[in-house]
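Q: I'm writing a short explainer about DHHA1 domain-containing protein for a general audience and would like to include a description of its predicted shape. Could you first generate the structure from this sequence?
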Amino acid sequence: MKKILANIKKAVKNAKTALIVSHIDPDGDSIGSMLAMGNILTQFNLTTFYYSEDGLPKVYRFLPGADKVVNKLPPFQRYDLLFTMDASDIKRLGSKLSVKEIAKIIINIDHHPDNTKYGNFNYIEKCSSTAELVFKIAKHWDIKINRETAENLYIALITDTGNFRYENTSAKTFTMAAELLKTGIDTHEISTRIYDTRSIASIRIQAAALVNVEISPDRKAAWTVVTEAMMQKHQARGEDLMGLVDQIRSIEGIEVAMLFREEKSKVKVNFRSKDKVNVSALAKRFGGGGHIRAAGAVMLGSIDNVKNDIVAEVLKYLKASKYLA
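A: Of course. Here's the predicted structure. Afterward I'll give you a sentence or two in plain language.
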């Protein structure tokens, strides 16, 4: 770890500009880590830019620095450094970014164990979140974490650990959280904004989806579908579905939960598991990936065909116990 962080620091000291990028459909960890990393880089007098192809969900727009994130870049712009945050594969950065052409050096920071190591420098370590790696970078570089950086890191930490409920939570996670709290961040306000603030569209679309939850005959898998027509009817956006698949997972006895969301000619699939199933391995069969207990994939085709194919595969492998973890 020390060698790779020393090499990254050297690259930072020799650079003037840096572009920091989140993955598509950005979550709290990707966004918080991106903004925190940018705050750290400014202490080296770098001019920093932030990019997210899908923009930022409304729930995260209160974060310090969120107003600087863009979803379009100037044509032919080239940067000294490209930092990719929480993206296990180049494809996760989106289709509009020419990764190999936009920067001289790619610095890949991620906590997913299946990361493809596509950067010139790859700081990959299995831990609770990419935020934990950014925290380690600040410590290793002797950078004092200010309140703005701490707020972004805390958001990233709680969202990727399910507010410290998931099994990726460790003693190191709480130690990091304790240090962040010392900067004076308001954890009550943060938690209220993330977990207790919902739009009426979110309530209605999730209610409609939960009414239609289907459960497998063995009661080990459950899933629901959200069509474009449903989204239009309730004037909902993608971010209004946040937490829906987790509610399905909470059903007693369920080991695998799935959410199928129709989006034009493709279907976005979210997988969740409780204690036994490696849904990351399952998602890889469909061109996706993620964590052992939370993963996703995007497939072409009609929502009915995609749902039927994936449900059949899940039930088959639940029976065979191939993906137990």
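A: For your explainer, you could say: Residues 255 and 274 are 5 Å apart (CA to CA).
Q: Perfect, that's easy to follow.
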